[in-house]
Specification:
The protein is α+β, with helices and mostly antiparallel strands and 532 residues long. 25% of the residues lie in helices and 20% in strands. The longest helix has 15 residues. It is globular and about 70 Å long.
């Protein structure tokens, strides 16, 4: 499983998009070993030079070496001292220089993290040594890429989590980004989205991914990768052509659709349940122009806006993606309802589509902005300013349209975020699916929710150091209130420790994912709470 569920898409706060207000998402949200943090990195068995992944790509996007290669450390280190001597990266222990900054995640609620050690891997060999040490000493392992685990599992042991004190294998330094002449890009899972977007855009290329700038691309991709271009580009995992993964026995595998396809399948939405990813190769596209738009409506129109949006957004032209947010809290003088979106087609087409949606609401927007910009500028604008925020979150999969009565429940619970003492901002975000996401079969990758209309994220942001219990209770009660409409399904990158059945994340793919994980990790070295 993964421990680092990279929160993929940060939440768009209310307010004008050009102001670059902070957004926090789950896009990168992750789960134990299986979700987001699986992690990893992008180099081969030698230290990564100049931040670039090792290995030259082949025609199908996998790295040049075909098939598994034996671990360079058949037995490996059996003490902390031996592990430190065996790696080219840095092994941190409690009290060492840099320890306090290294042990915290992006969510300050896990700042009391107390792992046994943190290995900042810089090569395949470092990951192999860390896994060998864990096997030899029976030390639990937690995996981390971007550090956005909603559950805190990638902290390697923190109050309020089910994870024992562990060795954290961090792949955040495996962050190389290399664009190849054939249009593919090899990226280390530790690469942050802001850097991925900027590097690709500088070369006129693009992938579809999340919006939170600090999410690691590894965790995001392994859990599926819902993002701001999902309807035109597909999920981030749909754009994968090759993965280098280190299984718990220390073997490095270069996998693709034709080489070890089961492992490759599991890396496409299975949350990293099969090993530590150290490199990912993506098919890129020419960077499109982007029209970025935002609409705000009076709260009195919330129900009609939700009704019109669910009829429009999941079935709109594939070039349009949008998110609908209903938020309230002490940061708001009144509850807010906003629709933010991107369009990669002609401005004329965007205007017609958005105007049709507005007309269907029967309401007059209080704000309507639209700006044409480059791909790189749009991704930077959507990301906003990076910041750490204490947050509670959970999710649903919006499989059906809501009835009028169910829309009323949604609106009422979003408004009730303002009744939770200390809730700075909370509510719900609905992110449109459909389009390219729906053109992949539900068993063709480990992500099963291909026919769903939307992913749904319930959030509550609170002051650092506050007791998280009331905010966890709020988001989980919101999810429960919507279960008559949407059942118990959830998005793996928006993991929640209260969701204990892995089939809620993986649906019809759970048994196959379990079988592959059992074969790759028969001793459960990488197992995380509530994972397959």
């Amino acid at each position: 499983m993964t421990t680092d569920g990279g929160a993929e898409r940060p939440e768009l706060r209310s307010g004008r998009v050009p102001a670059r207000t902070s957004r926090r998402a789950l896009l990168g949200g992750g789960v134990g070993l299986g979700l987001a943090g699986l992690l990893a990195a992008c180099t081969g068995g030698t230290p990564k030079p100049s931040g670039s992944p090792t290995g030259s790509p082949t025609g199908n996007g996998a790295t040049a070496s075909a098939g598994p290669t034996a671990s360079p450390t058949p037995r490996g280190p059996a003490s902390w001292q031996a592990l430190a001597a065996a790696v080219s990266g840095r092994l941190l222990r409690p009290g060492s220089q840099g320890w306090d900054s290294a042990r915290v995640l992006e969510n300050p609620r896990w700042d009391d993290a107390d792992p046994r050690g943190i290995l900042r891997a810089t090569s395949d060999a470092d990951v192999q040594a860390g896994l060998a040490f864990a096997r030899n000493t029976r030390t639990p392992v937690a995996l981390r890429a971007g550090g956005h685990s909603y559950t805190g599992w990638s902290a390697g042991g923190a109050p309020g989590t089910d994870v024992p004190r562990s060795l954290v294998i961090s792949t955040q330094d495996l962050d190389g980004i290399e664009v190849h002449a054939d249009g593919t890009a090899t990226i280390g899972p530790g690469a942050r989205l802001a850097n991925v977007y900027a590097t690709l855009a500088a070369q006129g290329r693009a992938i579809g991914a999340g919006s939170c700038p600090t999410v690691g691309v590894g965790g995001l991709t392994l859990g599926g990768g819902v993002g701001v271009l999902a309807r035109s580009f597909g999920l981030t995992c749909d754009q994968l052509s090759g993965v280098r993964v280190i299984t718990p026995d220390g073997t490095a595998h270069d996998v693709s659709a034709t080489t070890e396809p089961d492992l490759f399948w599991a890396c496409r939405g299975g949350g990293g349940t099969v090993g530590v990813v150290t490199s990912m190769t993506f098919r890129t596209r020419a960077a499109p122009g982007v029209l970025l738009f935002e609409l705000a409506f009076p709260w009195s129109a919330a129900a009609v806006v939700v009704r019109a949006w669910q009829d429009w957004a999941p079935t709109a032209d594939d070039e349009l993606w949008s998110t609908l947010k209903l938020l309230n809290g002490s940061r708001h003088t009144t509850p807010s309802i906003t629709v933010t979106g991107v369009w990669t087609g002609s401005k004329t087409g965007a205007d017609a589509s958005v105007d049709g949606f507005v007309a269907a609401t029967g309401a007059r927007p209080t704000r309507h902005t639209a700006e044409q910009m480059s791909y790189g500028t749009a991704m930077s604008t959507l990301a906003g300013k990076p910041q750490r925020v204490s947050e509670a979150a959970t999710s649903s999969i919006g499989t059906t349209k809501l009835t009028d009565a169910q829309i009323d429940v949604l609106v009422q619970h979003a408004e009730a975020a303002g009744d939770v003492s200390g809730n700075l901002e909370g509510g719900v975000s609905l992110d449109a699916l459909g389009g390219a996401v729906a053109r992949v079969g539900r068993t063709d990758s480990a992500f099963p929710w291909r026919s769903a209309l939307m992913t749904v994220q319930y959030t509550a942001v609170f002051a650092d150091g506050s007791d998280p219990a009331p905010f966890d209770a709020y988001v989980r009660a919101f999810r429960e209130a919507m279960s008559p409409a949407w059942g118990s399904a959830a998005y793996a990158n928006y993991c929640d420790a209260a969701i204990t059945d892995p089939s809620d994340y993986f649906g019809v793919n759970t048994s196959r994912l379990h079988r592959i994980a059992e074969q790759a990790d028969p001793d459960g070295l990488l197992s995380q709470p509530h994972w397959v």
